[in-house]
């Protein structure tokens, strides 16, 4: 009798262990499936961008994405687990049938995990990432890279212009109506930016409102900041032995690279970078400190300076409504000095997923992002108008660009990635463009172009892999094609490792 009781207990324990083990397999399969489905339907970015975000310094990361993942994925996962629990309860007292079905159930759970894993590889773009020619060595830098200190960069009229450089988070020309060159059927969500592009200088890949294309290593914020200010894509190691000197760890960020900040520092500029989040995120503090000795103003500075309370935090830190008010004070302080200045700022409200609606945003449109994009358009236009009313404006170039294509699919779903061009506008600049239409260019071309807009002459019209698009010199994308450029910069480069990282 005791042996029977012991055997029965052992059988129950065995069943419980089997139930828990298979349940864990089912849980993993469920989480992978639900998360992959959510990612596929929510985001429009590759695994490279995701990998960099995960592995780079993550101070200051916005908390809303985590909340949105939980909101979107928790209930489906719970539902799938309840299905499993129901399956287990139904089999618990079925004798031989249970023995047969538990094996079938275990196999099905393993198959589900394998299937979910394969689907996740597809959804996250891991397969495309692995197909990139990372083991093939390229020589694009040996052939085409122009070191900024190897050419003459001279001020044409002897009086250097100030620079206000405004990066608008995820600002595509896609948000405009098809009538003016965008991709929206009827509504133009960026009428002010459209008007600025028509009034001033805006380079386009077409005859309407257009912009520049994103290539490998430039399609997330730090990649865009790097490429627009140095003329190279982000190909720095974010893991492994070489990562210590690449993404802000140990205070180093591409310490051999010469960027816009380095050039302007040599030319006597005082420089500042302003953002509404923790500047440590993705190593931005290291990059801007090391390349140009920028003064940094971020979320924590805003607390120290009394712009926001110590416990105040929305979105990634504070909203653009506050950012622009800080920008006005900081620009006035820079303008009061005796040095030319470079004031660079990065907005945040239009960040994925869906954007953040501040107090200035109305409810004109159906979705949050539509209202946020419209609000961002109005805010940047108001800030530019304010700048134009100040004494420093006459001696100041204002550059407005997006940083990279939108990473979620809202307002851009179904639009080919190549057609999702990034906004650009040059206001009050010295240079006169040869042509602003039908130009095929990337964020790397902005490096020499911004200097040209400020009134500097560049020997050969090229810096880094970028070309001054005010000139008639073709960009690398125009000369050899966008696909060629995309392929070449995706290859491993020993020159890149030795000269930039």
CATH topology annotation of the largest domain: Alkaline Phosphatase, subunit A
What's the average pLDDT?
88
State the separation between the terminal residues, measured CA to CA.
74 Å
Looking at CATH, the homologous superfamily of the largest domain is Alkaline Phosphatase, subunit A
Order of helices and strands: HHHHHHEEHHHEHEHHEHEEHEEEHHH
Summarize this structure briefly.
With 501 residues, the protein is of the alpha/beta class. The protein has helices at 2-42, 47-55, 64-91, 95-123, 126-131, 140-144, 191-199, 221-230, 260-266, 284-290, 299-304, 320-335, 368-388, 446-453, 476-480, 482-490, 494-499; strands at 153-155, 162-168, 270-275, 295-297, 341-346, 396-402, 424-427, 456-458, 462-463, 466-467.
What does this structure look like?
The chain is an alpha/beta fold. It folds into 2 domains: 2-131, no CATH class; 140-499, Alkaline Phosphatase, subunit A (3-Layer(aba) Sandwich). 44% of the residues lie in helices and 9% in strands. The strands form 3 sheets. The protein has a 6-stranded mixed β-sheet, with helices on both faces. Helix 1 (2-42) runs antiparallel to helix 3, helix 1 packs parallel to helix 4 (95-123) and helix 7 runs parallel beside helix 13 (368-388). The longest helix is centred in the first third of the chain and has 41 residues, at 2-42. It is elongated and about 95 Å long.
């Amino acid at each position: 009798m005791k042996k029977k009781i012991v055997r029965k207990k052992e059988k129950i324990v065995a069943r419980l262990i089997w139930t828990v083990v298979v349940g864990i397999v089912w849980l993993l399969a469920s989480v992978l499936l639900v998360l992959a489905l959510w990612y596929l339907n929510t985001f429009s970015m590759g695994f490279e961008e995701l990998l960099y975000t995960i592995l780079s310094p993550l101070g200051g990361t916005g908390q809303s994405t985590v909340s949105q993942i939980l909101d979107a994925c928790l209930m489906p996962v719970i539902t799938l687990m309840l299905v499993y629990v129901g399956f287990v309860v139904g089999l618990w007292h079925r004798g031989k049938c249970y023995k047969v079905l538990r094996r079938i159930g275990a196999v099905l759970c393993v198959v589900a995990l394998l299937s979910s894993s394969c689907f996740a590889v597809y959804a996250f773009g891991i397969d495309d990432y692995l197909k990139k020619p990372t083991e093939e060595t390229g020589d694009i830098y040996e052939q085409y890279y122009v070191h900024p200190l190897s050419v003459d960069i001279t001020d044409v009229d002897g009086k250097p212009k100030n620079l206000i450089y405004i990066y608008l988070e995820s600002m595509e020309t896609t948000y405009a109506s098809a009538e003016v060159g965008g991709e929206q059927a009827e509504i133009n969500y960026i009428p002010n930016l459209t008007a600025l592009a028509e009034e001033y200088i805006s380079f386009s890949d077409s005859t309407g409102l257009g912009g520049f294309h994103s290539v490998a290593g430039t399609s997330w914020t730090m990649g865009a900041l790097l490429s627009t200010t140095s003329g190279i894509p982000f190909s720095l190691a974010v893991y492994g032995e070489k990562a210590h000197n690449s993404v802000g760890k140990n205070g180093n960020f591409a310490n051999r690279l010469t960027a816009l900040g380095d050039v302007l520092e040599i030319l006597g500029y005082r420089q500042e970078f302003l953002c509404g989040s923790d500047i440590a995120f993705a190593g931005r503090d290291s990059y801007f400190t090391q390349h140009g000795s920028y003064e940094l103003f971020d979320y924590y500075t805003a607390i120290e300076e009394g712009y926001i309370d110590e416990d105040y935090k929305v979105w990634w830190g504070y909203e653009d409504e506050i950012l622009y008010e800080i920008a006005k004070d900081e620009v006035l302080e820079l303008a009061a000095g005796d040095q030319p200045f470079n004031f660079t700022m990065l907005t945040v409200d239009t960040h994925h997923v869906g954007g953040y609606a501040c107090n200035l945003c109305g409810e004109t449109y159906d979705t949050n992002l539509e209202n946020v994009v419209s609000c961002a358009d109005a805010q940047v236009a108001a800030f530019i108008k304010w700048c134009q009313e100040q004494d420093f404006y006459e001696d100041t170039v204002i550059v407005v660009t997006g940083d990279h294509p939108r990473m979620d699919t809202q307002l851009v779903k179904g639009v080919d990635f190549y057609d999702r061009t990034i906004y650009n506008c040059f206001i009050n600049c010295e240079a006169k463009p040869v042509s602003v239409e039908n130009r095929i260019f990337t964020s790397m071309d902005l490096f020499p172009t911004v200097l040209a807009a400020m009134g500097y002459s560049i020997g050969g019209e090229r810096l880094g892999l970028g070309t001054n698009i005010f000139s008639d010199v073709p960009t690398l994308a125009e000369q050899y094609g966008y696909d060629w450029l995309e392929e070449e910069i995706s290859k491993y480069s020993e020159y890149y490792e030795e000269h930039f990282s």
